[in-house]
UniProtKB/TrEMBL annotation:
Residues at which GTP 1 binds: 8-15, 55-59, 118-121
Protein function: GTPase that plays an essential role in the late steps of ribosome biogenesis.
EngA-type G domain span: 2-166, 191-372
Gene transcribed to yield this protein: der
InterPro entries attached to this UniProt entry: G_ENGA (IPR031166), GTP-bd (IPR006073), GTPase_Der (IPR016484), KH_dom-like (IPR032859), KH_dom-like_a/b (IPR015946), P-loop_NTPase (IPR027417), Small_GTP-bd (IPR005225)
Lineage of the organism: Bacteria, Pseudomonadati, Pseudomonadota, Alphaproteobacteria, Sphingomonadales
Gene3D superfamilies on file: 3.30.300.20, P-loop containing nucleotide triphosphate hydrolases (3.40.50.300)
Protein source organism: Pelagerythrobacter rhizovicinus
Annotated keywords: GTP-binding, Nucleotide-binding, Repeat, Ribosome biogenesis
Name the UniProt record assigns to this protein: GTPase Der
Length: 457
């Protein structure tokens, strides 16, 4: 197991950090002869990354004058077995001369140092964290050991250093890193749904059908609707009997009396753009009597560019001809035209008869789930290691591109950050390999997934 030592002047929160990392697992007091009795050892786990953490808080002394010397002597012994050092400063107090003294000494050592700005909750802490850059160890990890914030970032900083040596658990142990990530997993509110499409695709008819009242003006004339912007309503899912809340965003209504001079075709793309500001899931409505046109792909592309979940519904299915070849043709054209997603939900509906509408809404709730999903860091990195092993990154000029670890930086839409070195040399095809893997193997099929490459400073 790799060993990580916690270093810092008194009162910066070393023991609190130690206890946070070790959690309920009992800290072992080392009583081997010849080892300083002041050191505490504990088993730490962050998101499946296991290591031994060493607390040096016991070195603190009643007489601060002698501290640097004592610290040096004691730390020298401890550093011998250490794979990484967490150099803790107090973000609230800011840097002190003693911090700087320790930093100077640490720079003369060979152990990799991760600067940690503790007590970084709130705005006062933020300033201190920025100050910690000046220690010369790169980007500080801002955290609050007491509140358990920022532990996932600590994982991000430690992984490149000790990840290879660490034994990772077989079962996903997500306690520390994922406890704080779970804020985001608050229950999802009403499904924010927008329906977009070219003029005359049947958007207004569809909305009226869904709401069960003639709230919007519909007719053969294109682009005549201008009504309310958002409508809240309850839908009972016939498949499960569940009652679910939906906020429907009426993009046609957002046109605000469409300036007739503007081309209607252009307007529908603009509508889609505006809709995505409000919507989680967007339904692109096609007209079965027209098929898929270039304009539809442009709208779909705009939705995906904005990172929204997309569903395609072919309307007017009641009057569709050659239904199966129409459907398959559209499926193929979508796969070809929209490289950024695979297997978009494609449904046949009729706003007039109501056919397929419950299926469409069910699909909308389902795709919102994957769009909102977070993969625990440990599971993500297990997949990542396998993906790299199956297809190692190339070695341009004989020097291998190193991909070290991956984290999911956000959900809704899902975004991932891959850390590594020589990333500018990584071919686009390899990036696509990773994106496709995330989609296929981690359950992000059909949602826009973004991957950013980052080299640590
Ligand atoms: P919008 O411009 O997208 O809002 O389109 P509208 O809702 O105004 O519909 C345009 C035309 O298509 C109207 O004449 C509707 O009656 C017709 N329409 C809409 N949905 C259907 C459908 O499911 N089947 C058939 N046969 N016609 C439809």
């Amino acid at each position: 197991k790799p060993q990580v030592i916690i270093i810092g002047r008194p009162n910066v929160g070393k023991s609190t950090l130690f206890n946070r990392l070790v959690g309920k697992r009992l800290a072992l007091v080392d009583d081997q002869p010849g080892v300083t009795r002041d050191r505490r050892f504990g088993d730490a786990t962050i998101a499946g990354l296991e290591f031994t953490v060493v607390d040096t808080a016991g070195w603190e002394d009643d007489d601060p004058e002698t501290l640097p010397g004592r610290m040096r002597r004691q730390t020298e012994v401890s550093l011998e077995g250490a794979d990484a050092a967490l150099f803790v400063i107090d973000a609230r107090a800011g840097l002190t001369p003693l911090d700087e003294e320790i930093a100077r000494w640490l720079r003369s050592q060979t152990v990799p140092v991760v600067p940690v700005a503790n007590k970084a909750e709130g705005a006062a802490g933020e300033a201190g964290a920025i100050e910690a850059w000046s220690l010369g160890f790169g980007e500080p990890v801002a955290l609050s050991a007491e509140h358990g914030e920022g532990i996932a970032d600590l994982f991000g900083a430690l992984w490149p250093i000790i990840g290879e040596k660490a034994e990772r658990r077989e079962t996903i142990d997500t306690e520390a890193a994922d406890a704080e990530e779970s804020d985001e997993d608050a229950p999802l509110g009403p499904l924010k749904l927008a329906i977009v499409g070219r003029p005359n695709a049947g958007k207004s008819t569809l909305i009226n059908r869904l709401l069960g009242e003639d709230r919007l003006l519909t007719g053969p004339e294109a682009g005549i609707t201008r009504d309310s912007i958002a409508v809240d309503w309850r839908w009972t899912d016939p498949a499960s009997g569940e009652v679910r809340d939906i906020r429907l965003i009426d993009t046609a209504g957002m046109r605000k009396k469409a300036r007739v001079t503007e081309k209607l075709e252009k307007l529908s793309v603009a509508d889609a753009r505006r809709a995505v500001d409000f919507a989680e899931v967007v339904v692109l409505l096609l007209d079965a009597t027209k098929g898929l046109e270039h304009q539809d792909l442009k709208i779909a592309d705009a939705v995906l560019q904005e990172g929204r979940a997309l569903i395609v519904a072919i309307n007017k299915w009641d009057v569709a001809e050659n239904a199966s070849s129409l459907f398959n043709g559209i499926r193929e054209a979508l796969n070809e035209g929209l490289a950024q997603v695979r297997g978009l939900p494609l449904l046949a509906v009729s706003a007039r008869t109501g056919k397929g509408l419950d299926t469409m809404l069910g699909a909308a709730f389902e795709i919102r789930e994957s769009w909102s999903k977070r993969v625990p860091t440990a599971a993500l990195n297990r997949w990542f290691d396998d993906a790299l092993a199956a297809n190692p990154p190339p070695a341009p000029g004989g020097k291998r591109i190193k991909l070290r670890y991956i984290t999911q930086s956000s959900t809704r839409p899902p975004r991932f950050v891959v850390f590594g070195t020589r990333l500018d040399m990584l071919p686009k095809s390899y990036e696509r390999y990773l994106v496709n893997g995330i989609r296929r193997e981690l359950g992000f099929e059909a949602v826009p997934v973004r991957v950013v490459l980052k080299s640590p400073k």
